[in-house]
Every structure is written in C-alpha cells, then in structure tokens.
Design goal:
- It is a single chain.
- The protein has about 325 residues and is an all-alpha fold.
- About 70% of the residues lie in helices and about 0% in strands.
- The protein contains 15 helices and two strands.
- Strands 1-2 form a two-stranded antiparallel sheet.
- Helix 3 runs antiparallel to helix 4, helix 3 packs parallel to helix 13 and helix 4 packs antiparallel against helix 7.
- The termini are far apart.
- The relative contact order is 0.14.
Length: about 325
C-alpha cells in the first residue's frame, strides 16, 4: 500500500490526500459510482444478449460466427462485472485497507501488485480488441470480402494492441500507480488510436452501404438503406463517444477518465449486440411476408445469399442485397 508514497509522478500523495475530485467525489466514490453504472449497463446487455441469441440461433454458418463473437464479449463483460464488485468488497471491507488512512483511495490508485486490478484491466483490453476485430470483420464482409480495405485498419489495430500492452506492463509492476505519467501517455495514445479505428471503420461500412443504395436507387427510384445507415451510425457512435469522453477527462488530468473504463467495457459489448438485435439479422417476419403476398421461399433464398459477396439483379451487380428489399438486409453482416 506504500506504492503511492514511493511514486513521484503527478504528486500522487497530494492527489490522494486532497482526493476530492472536481466532481466532489473521492477516487473510491468514483469507482463505486462507475460500478453501479456498469451494473445497470450489464443488465441491459443481458437482455440484448438473450435477444441476440434468439436472432442468431437458427441462422446460417456466418450467423454462428456472430453468435460466438457476441458470446465471447458477453462472457468478458460478465467476468469484468464480477471482478469490479470483488474489488469494491476488498477496498471497503479488507481489514488491512480499512485500517489505513484513505485506504480505499490508495487501494484503487495503487495498481502494482493488485491482481484484481490487473485481471480487470486485462479483460477490458481483450474485450476492446475483440470489439475492434468484429468491426473490421464487418467491414470485410460488407465490402464483398475485399481484404484490401482491411489492411490499414488492421495496422492501426496492431498499433493499438502494442501501445495498450505497454500501458498494462507499466501498471503491473509493484509500486506503480494510475498516476504514472508514462502510463497516462500510453493510455491517451491508445484511446486516440481506438477512437480513430472505430470512427474510420464505421465510416467505411456506412460509405459502402450508401454507395450500394445509390446504385439500387437507379433501378428502384428509392434509396433503400437509409434506416440501415442510421442504425449503424447510432450504434457505432457509442464507443467513440465513450472513448472521447474518457480521453478528454484523462487529458485534462481528471482521474474519472481512468475510472470510466469500467463503463467502456459494457458499451463495447453493447454495440455489436445492438446492431444484431435491431437488424434481426435481416430476416423478415414470415407472417408479414405471407400477408403481403410475397412467397417465403424468395426471402429465404436471399437470406442465404446475404453472406455472399455479390448478388445479380437485373444484370446489375449489387453488393449484399437486403432480404426484404428494404433497409434491414445489411443487419446480417453489420
């Protein structure tokens, strides 16, 4: 627990002793607040995951990949919530911590030798990497399985992974703390790369869908993918907005930027679940199809083809056409 006292950067002793932050909360209180906010978001993710499993369970092979990715991220989010609660129990009930003046604040600040904190940060890192890889995979599928468009995002992803691993390595040794200047610099750099990656890849997905919509509009006189684009932008904006908030707080010296990573874990898990659930994987309601007079076999054939790179309609090559002929077809891949 004396790691903070031995740490020079940012005068952590001063920061802890005057541990009332600009929000009026101590470091320990901020962690408690974020813990409960994360618990609320995790409850939302539980409902989304159930709906996601129902939407994917009877899908094709490509849908099974989405199910695996969603299950993996949800398992990480679950483990993270448990660790956060165990950490809070230790910070506020452990005899050694309670006997130390400002013990809870010091416990949360001193990351070195804290195995619970190391495990929690590791889950946060792996979950972020998984969310980014899934986003790049969606870009790959939407662009007709064109690997060239994924080269630059993958380079940024590798750079992000490298910087984050260095940041975790700086926080792991004994006597290290969240107030280390080196760790802060790498954290800010990692968040910047993560924000750039999420924004650019989402923009690439939206651009290709918009371009496809323009081509189909020439045949149908109707832009079919407006709601699909709005769905991707709305859901995809959650992670960049969260990262931008944490980046701004930490760049301004507010420790809330670091504490808020607990919330980012749940938002990173929520984003792909929201897209899958809202799109319903592009599968039309059979009752609707029958009542509208459309044969259900036609819908099924297009749904099977949704994971192929091209579909020919009226001798015009159009990328990944929607099952319903409306705005929901890209839900199978984005």
């Amino acid at each position: 627990m004396d790691g903070i006292a031995n740490e020079d950067p940012w005068h952590p002793t001063l920061l802890i002793s005057s541990s009332k932050m600009s929000s009026g909360q101590t470091l320990a209180q901020m962690n408690l607040t974020c813990m409960w906010l994360e618990a609320i978001l995790y409850g939302i993710n539980c409902m989304l995951f159930g709906a996601c499993v129902r939407a994917i369970s009877f899908g094709s092979r490509g849908h099974k990949l989405l199910l695996f990715a969603a299950s993996f991220q949800f398992a990480l989010a679950t483990a993270h919530v448990i660790l956060v609660f165990v950490t809070a129990m230790t910070a506020f009930t452990d005899a050694t911590v309670v006997a130390t003046p400002d013990g809870a604040n010091l416990y949360y600040a001193a990351t070195g030798g804290n195995h619970l904190d190391t495990a929690s940060v590791s889950i946060f890192v792996v979950n972020s990497f998984a969310q980014e890889l899934l986003l790049i995979w969606r870009l790959y599928v939407v662009w007709g399985q064109n690997f060239k468009v994924c080269i630059l995002p993958l380079i940024v992803w590798v750079a992000h992974c490298t910087i984050v691993f260095i940041d975790v390595a700086l926080l792991a040794p004994k006597n290290s703390s969240i107030f280390s200047l080196d760790a802060r610099a790498f954290s800010l750099c990692g968040w910047l790369l993560e924000m750039i990656l999420n924004v650019t890849v989402t923009a690439g997905i939206v651009y290709h869908i918009w371009r496809t919509g323009r081509r189909t509009a020439a045949l149908t006189s109707h832009f079919m993918y407006r709601s699909t684009i709005m769905m991707i932008v709305e859901s995809g904006a959650l992670v960049p907005i969260c990262i931008c908030t944490l980046f701004s707080l930490w760049a301004a010296g507010n420790v809330g930027g670091v504490v808020g990573v607990n919330i980012e874990v749940q938002i990173a898990t929520m984003t792909p679940l929201l897209i899958i659930v809202r799109s319903g994987l592009g599968r039309p309601n059979p009752k609707y199809e029958l009542s509208a007079g459309h044969p259900s076999s036609h819908s099924r054939s297009l749904e099977v083809n949704a994971f192929r790179s091209k579909i020919s309609v009226s001798d015009h090559s159009m990328d990944v056409i929607l099952p319903k002929g409306k705005d929901t077809g890209f839900g199978a891949v984005v």
